[in-house]
Specification:
Length: about 450
């Protein structure tokens, strides 16, 4: 008998006042009892629309049925036939616009909490202890993967399971991509990401860190070196700036740099002396997930006041609703319909203010969103000592500029066909390097597609 409760089973969270000052995980996850209760809300629909909403087609009703029966290990096994990183996806997937958006229960009430259930299964297995992982016997073929974000990890994992000898080349000193350097600890504990990476190593994947492809070695050299195919999953880590006056002042960061200092270089831990502004009043410019992460991190580093400055209204804000809600609960102030004009500095070139104008929404532009227009005479100055620019990123041009025959579009994204094949023979690509900044699960889906295509390419060579 299904549980017809209209709302999702609530999940425990740290108190907003306490969590706004620590980096521990905000959402605590379901207990076994809560998970079973929530799983019983699933109607096991014949048409399974939820699966269509998932980019890697997790067999949702099947795994949820197992959770409802208390068969958590079986549920985990079903998820991992198509999703290699369930602990990550259960936490950070934008479920409200993917699997949960299509859930039949969501038509009149709240959808089934698919993400929370996926996270529960992954955490259950993590707590249960390691399972034995046996590498597949080598088929003698070598493949290189550039970048160890979700795209690279998922491509490497699938190829290793097919018997390929896979080496990941990662520019940073730690593998994981944005999962390690971007998304903060309070949303995605780093131990979870590292556990997934250890599992990949047990499959036989080699990871070489501090290897900037395009500087230490080029893609062409990797091909000459015996790698029969290459997957480029180098992400979109090049920050954009507004091009306004004062962006070079001390105290202006890109969100990527700010978050990298905090997450990867552990600026939030007292026993690390990573340089970062311990700011009192911070303005974060932008309205995406990255802006929410930067604002909430600034609060946790001890800021007295944190503003999110966004030029459209809350309705247009691209960040996940849950993240906006969490940020508001933690005391972040949202200055919507507000656009920065100039960063103001003192005689020591340190930030002391951000001049802004108020905006109003006009007619929809070609993206369908109403374009913001400045309201004349509404200029005002926010007294801030740090400004974090979070208005988007694009792929770094290094790999394209050091590889022969690799084409990009005008946004600098690598051009691929449906099989994730680039314009250069033997070279495949996926994730943010191809789409521009997107999502973890889309990057993983691209990595999977590329692994299949690489397998076919090498077998037919
Ligand atoms: P990345 O994760 O960027 O990984 C690319 C890797 O390649 C990096 O490790 C990089 O160091 C390495 N690399 C780059 N150039 C080279 C080179 N020349 N040689 C060797 N290595 C190289 N998505 C969600 O779904 N949910 C969220 O909640 C969410 N929050 C986010 C928060 C932040 C702060 C950010 C920045 C992004 C967020 N995203 C979120 C987006 C998501 O993380 C990305 O879409 C995803 O990580 C893309 O995966 P990827 O593997 O393509 O690239
Ligand atoms: Fe939903 Fe993401 Fe899991 Fe797919 S991987 S079912 S989109 S939470
Ligand atoms: Fe269950 Fe919702 Fe999927 Fe139906 S659409 S099977 S209720 S998760």
């Amino acid at each position: 008998m299904a549980n017809m409760c209209p709302n999702k089973t609530p999940v425990a969270e740290q108190d907003p006042k306490i969590r706004a000052r620590n980096f521990k995980e905000v959402t605590l996850g379901y207990t076994a009892e809560e998970a079973i209760n929530e799983a019983q809300r699933c109607l096991n629909c014949k048409t399974k629309p939820c699966i269509e909403g998932c980019p890697v087609k997790v067999r949702i009703p099947e795994f949820i049925a197992k959770v409802a029966e208390g068969e958590f290990e079986e549920a985990y096994d079903i998820i991992t036939t198509t999703n290699g990183l369930p602990a990550v996806c259960g936490r950070v997937c934008p479920q409200e616009s993917q699997c949960e958006e299509r859930c039949v229960r969501g038509i009149k009430n709240e959808p089934v909490a698919i993400g929370r259930l996926e996270r529960f299964c992954a955490d259950y297995m993590l707590n249960k202890g390691n399972r034995e992982i046996n590498p597949t016997k080598s088929n003698g073929h070598k493949v290189a993967v550039v970048g160890s974000g979700p795209a690279g990890l998922s491509c490497a994992g699938d190829l290793a399971k097919l018997g390929y000898e896979v080496t990941i080349f990662e520019a940073f000193h730690t593998a994981g991509g944005v999962l390690m350097y971007g998304i903060p600890e309070f949303r995605l504990p780093k131990a979870i990401v590292q556990h997934e990476i250890e599992n990949l190593k047990k499959l036989g994947v080699k990871i070489m860190t501090n290897m900037v492809i395009g500087k230490v070695l080029s893609v062409d050299e990797l091909l000459d070196d015996g790698f029969e195919a290459i997957f480029v999953g180098s992400g979109a880590g090049l920050p954009r700036f507004m091009g306004i006056k004062g962006e070079g002042l001390i105290g202006v960061y890109s969100a990527n740099e700010y978050l990298t200092r905090i997450n990867l270089m552990k600026a939030y831990l007292d026993d690390y002396d990573t340089p970062i502004n311990k700011s009192k009043v911070v303005a974060v410019v932008g309205g995406g997930n990255v802006a929410m992460d930067a604002a909430r991190s600034a609060m946790r580093l001890g800021a007295e006041k944190v503003y999110v400055v966004y030029r459209r209204s809350l309705d247009e804000m691209p960040a996940r609703k849950e993240e906006v809600h969490h940020a508001m609960e933690e005391g972040i102030e949202f200055l919507v319909l507000t656009n920065p004009l100039k960063v103001i500095g003192d005689q020591n070139s340190k930030v002391i203010g951000l001049e802004c104008t108020k905006m109003e929404l006009g007619e929809p532009d070609n993206t369908g969103r109403r374009s913001p227009k400045a309201i004349s005479g509404s200029n005002h100055v926010l007294d801030v000592d740090s400004v974090i620019m979070s208005i988007g990123t694009s792929p770094n041009p290094l790999i394209k500029s050091t590889t022969t025959g690799l084409e990009t579009n005008r946004r600098g994204c690598l051009i691929v066909n449906q099989e994730m094949k680039t314009t250069k023979s033997g070279v495949y690509a996926g994730g943010d390097a191809v789409t521009g900044a997107a999502t973890v699960i889309l990057a993983m889906g691209a990595g999977k597609t590329a692994a299949n295509s690489i397998d076919e390419y090498i077998r037919n060579k």
